[in-house]
Amino acid sequence: MEAHYPFTLPPLPFAYDALAPELNEKTMLFHHDKHFAAYVDNLNKLLEGHPEYHTWSLEKLCQDWPELTEDIRQGVRNNAGGVYNHDLYFKTLAPTPASTPSGALANAVARDFGDVVALKSAMKAAALGQFGSGWAWLVSDCDGRLSIQKTPNQDTPLPLFPLLCCDVWEHAYYLQYQNRRADYFDAWWLLVDWPRVSQTYAEHAASRSRCPQP
Ligand code: MN
User: Fold this and answer.
1) Domain containing 49 — which CATH number?
2) What is the predicted pLDDT for the residue at 37?
């Protein structure tokens, strides 16, 4: 999201029932139209009275929130992260996903994990190992190297480059999977839009050339 205040809720790019049976209509409806929408609304309300931050991009808000005035600092941390994370989450799901990464991402997965099975295993371990609410991530660094990260609450892995994220807040799966986070992860994995993730990785190659050199 290159956007800045006022933020808007991106529409779900497919029908609410398009991901069933892995993610059912009720889960998608509440997750997108209630939870995601609330992060957008709350972020706008927090920033409304602070025009000095209206030019800040979403990424800047997510990364530089410690510089914000104290009255909105924690709220913006939580809600800007909520907007950023859910934007990527819904964008990287597809009703008819391709099964594997392609192109440069496929090569990087082979180099950094061995194969896609090992990638899934590492990301699942992060998803299940996140105590309480949070996220599991596939990210790349300045050199294009891939890694798995986990973040609590609505924190992001920025300034690393997020490629793919699994929401492990209970609101992402409880209506359908109750306490079975592992079953939810396996179902979510079947919906990953690898063409899109592969394209994002290729696009990041341009940004990586601007990374600071050690
Ligand atoms: Mn969520």
Assistant:
1) 1.10.287.990
2) 98
Q: What is the pLDDT of residue 214?
A: 53
- pTM value surpassing 0.70: yes
Question: Domain containing 170 — which CATH number?
Answer: 3.55.40.20
Distance 89 CA to ligand 1 centre (A): 8
Using alpha carbons only, how large is the chain's radius of gyration in Å? 17
CA of 116 to the centre of ligand 1 (A): 25
User: Does residue 212 sit within a domain?
Assistant: no
Q: How far is the CA of 142 from the centre of ligand 1 (A)?
A: 27
3 state DSSP class of 102 = coil
HSE-CB for 166 with a 13 A CA cutoff: 30
Inside any domain, residue 142: yes
How far, in Å, from the CA of 71 to the mean position of ligand 1? 25
In a domain, 143, yes or no: yes
Q: Model confidence over 138-186: pLDDT tens digits?
A: 999 988 999 999 999 999 999 999 999 999 999 999 999 999 999 999 9
Residue 136 alpha carbon to ligand 1 centre in Å? 12
Q: What is the DSSP string of 69-99?
A: -HHHHHHHHHHHHHHHHHHHHHHTB-SS--S
Range(s) of the domain holding residue 159: 103-207
What is the Å distance from ligand 1's center to 85 Cα?
A: 8
Total tally of structural domains belonging to the chain: 2
